[in-house]
Amino acid sequence: MAKEKVLGIDLGTTNSVVAVVMGDEPVVIQNQEGSRLTPSVVSWTKEKEILVGDPAKRRAILDPENTIYESKRFIGKKFDEVREEARRVSYKVVADDKGDAAFDVPNAGKVVRPEEVGAHVLRKLKEAAEAYLGEKVTKAVITVPAYFNERQRQATKDAGKIAGLEVLRILNEPTAAALAYGLDKKSDVRILVYDFGGGTFDVSILEGGEGVIEVKATSGDTHLGGANIDERIMEWLIEEFKKETGIDLRQDKTALQRLKEAAEQAKKELSFKLETEINLPFITVDPNTNQPLHLQKKLTRARLEEMIKDLIDRTMEIVQKALEDAKLKPEDIDDIVLVGGSTRIPLVQQRIKEFFGKEPHKGVNPDEVVAVGAAIQAGVLSGDVKEILLVDVTPLSLGVETYGGVMTVLIPRNTPIPYRKCEIFTTAADYQTEVEIHVLQGERPLAKDNKSLGKFYLTGIPPAPRGVPKIEVCFDIDADGILHVTAKDLGTGKEQSIKVQPSSGLTQEEIERIIKEAEAHAEEDKKKKELIETRNQLDQLVYNLEKTLKENRDKLPQDLVTETEKVIEEAKKTMQEAQEVERLRSMMDKVLQTSSKIGSHIYQGAGKKAGDENKKEGGDDVVDARPVD
Q1: Is 282 helix (H, G, I), strand (E, B) or coil?
Q2: Is 188 an active-site residue?
């Protein structure tokens, strides 16, 4: 019986592609309209028919409110995160009952989640593949941007599930591109994947050879893509039209959709032409004369390059950051692989050539390379392709909040995944019966400065003095980059766990801000952390002194008891007030001196008692205290 095929799917912001391994080669499958690219657009008609791909894209002008495009920008995100971005689309983005971003589609008669839109696109690709293969398909590998967080990855898996697909692997797009490029077949080669898609920009540096692909560094921007270039052209057209007519087309959603399509077409044409003419007849009506108005403008490649220069510069800054993370120089890169339709723009290729001193690799179709790589990985999982080991990385450090508000890192940034790390923690107070596990993501030493991914409680811990219970916390990142956290009381065996579902998505701007703040505040953070650690050390010394006093009070003279109580009181006050490490250390010395006095008194008393007993027995021998060889 033949093995079931596993699909490789690039679920893109603008277009999606499906591929499958046939024999030894990946094949890109045409959709029902005969195209290898399927627009990631879904439209609902009044008759409740759901159109997907090109038929939906054609309806976007006539029925913008019921046509959803670029839904990938909203998947797995809270509405509050995308409020500003929601104003740029011609349909209505709302918050669902959980506060997640969703779409109010009148013809659908309900609020539609981004996962549902993605599922319709995936279902169309699945049906096209089944028609091509002549058999049912139920499994797939789906790609996502490298900087998709856990929630976005899980939402993508959910979209696959809704479409009737078991998602065997969520694969980072740059890694997929490296597979399509054949990195696994080369020996000791470093490549940089420059992925400029419709909605996101990713750059990854990978090393490969002899069946192993390892991601050395990854960076990107989830709000930078070809759509931003389209917006620049749209803004220019709107302003030019406003100068000529006094009419602002931003208020007309149908006009905006036509402008968007015209801008996208102009961008494509200027990749191989020096100028293009944009003609949009009957774009609107003059409110004074009630006569139709037409938009006709000539756009040159030089003007477009001036419009988007800062966007391309931004991509090169991210490239530089990735190189720094990988501790490499431009000349260390053997090849540059271009992914995404926006890489066809001559200015992009020119900047890459200037930066690296070499031409980027053009042997793969930038629109199809990710799906081809996904198909190769799908072939590995189905057994059609010999085993290839993929080693991705986590983009930010992961850890837990510990006593004093410190973030204790379990998995550092750029750690290869899948990965598992466990550490033993204890309680911070006497007779504590539960602990809160606060999971964090970020690069700052203090918990409050990092991203909270989730919290859960481990309860039922037997009452015991602080420091006695042993709680094992394990972080487990699976091959899809989804984090699972487990806490286990080693004494009772009780266990709690969560699959981290962040309360909101983490944008690339937030990631960049986190890293930049970490660098800018490195010295300040170091001092804060040192202050907290010193305070914790003093707290431990005070705890031990209190315990010693309590257990030996009747053996100590009253003046020493009084002195010790005063020192404990002073130390506690110092812990609350002190903002200088020196003052805390001075107090630590004082506590240690008092502890030493108590210890000396206890042992002097014990020694005197032992001497008296020895005299009674008439012996003068002492224990030989020399070290034993």
Answers
A1: strand
A2: no
Q: Which fold has domain 6-225+309-392?
A: Nucleotidyltransferase; domain 5 (3.30.420)
DSSP conformational letter for 5: P
Residue 101: name the closest of 621, 505, 536 by CA. Answer: 505
- Please state, in angstroms and rounded to a whole number, the distance separating the CA atoms of residues 391 and 204: 12
Q: How many CB atoms lie within 10 A of CB 553?
A: 13
Among the options 173, 264, 449, 539, which is catalytic? 173
Residue 573 falls in the annotated catalytic set: no
Among candidates 189, 185, 157, 188, which has minimal Cα distance to 171?
A: 157
Enter the tokens of residue 372.
Answer: 């081809």
What's the pTM value of the predicted model, to 2 decimals? 0.63
pLDDT in tens, 303-358: 999 999 999 999 999 999 999 988 999 999 988 989 888 898 999 999 999 999 99
Contact 413, 396 (CB under 8 A): yes
From CA 202, how far away is CA 177, in angstroms rounded? Answer: 11
d(CA 36, CA 19): 9
User: For 394-520, which CATH class?
Assistant: mainly beta
CATH superfamily placement of domain 226-308? ATPase, substrate binding domain, subdomain 4 (3.90.640.10)
Pick the catalytic residue from 57, 63, 70, 72.
72
- For domain 523-616, give the CATH number: 1.20.1270.10
150 is catalytic: no
Report the chain's mean pLDDT, rounded to a whole number.
84
Q: How far is CA 308 from the centre of its chain?
A: 26
What confidence tens digit (pLDDT) does each residue in 168-213 have? 999 888 888 888 877 656 667 888 999 898 877 888 898 876 666 7
CB under 8 Å to 583, separation ≥6 — which residues?
A: 574
Rg (CA), the chain: 32
pLDDT in tens, 416-470: 777 888 888 888 888 888 888 888 888 888 888 887 777 878 888 888 888 888 8
pLDDT tens profile 45-70: 887 788 999 999 988 877 889 999 98
The full set of domain ranges for the chain reads 6-225+309-392, 226-308, 394-520, 523-616
The answer to whether 61 and 258 have CB atoms below 8 angstroms apart is: yes
98 contacts: CB under 8 Å, gap ≥ 6? none
Gap between the Cα atoms of 242 and 336, Å rounded: 42
The catalytically annotated residue of 195, 221, 230, 489 is: 195
Average pLDDT of the segment spanning 387-409: 76
Per-residue model confidence (pLDDT) at position 625:
44
**Does 72 qualify as catalytic in the annotation?**
yes
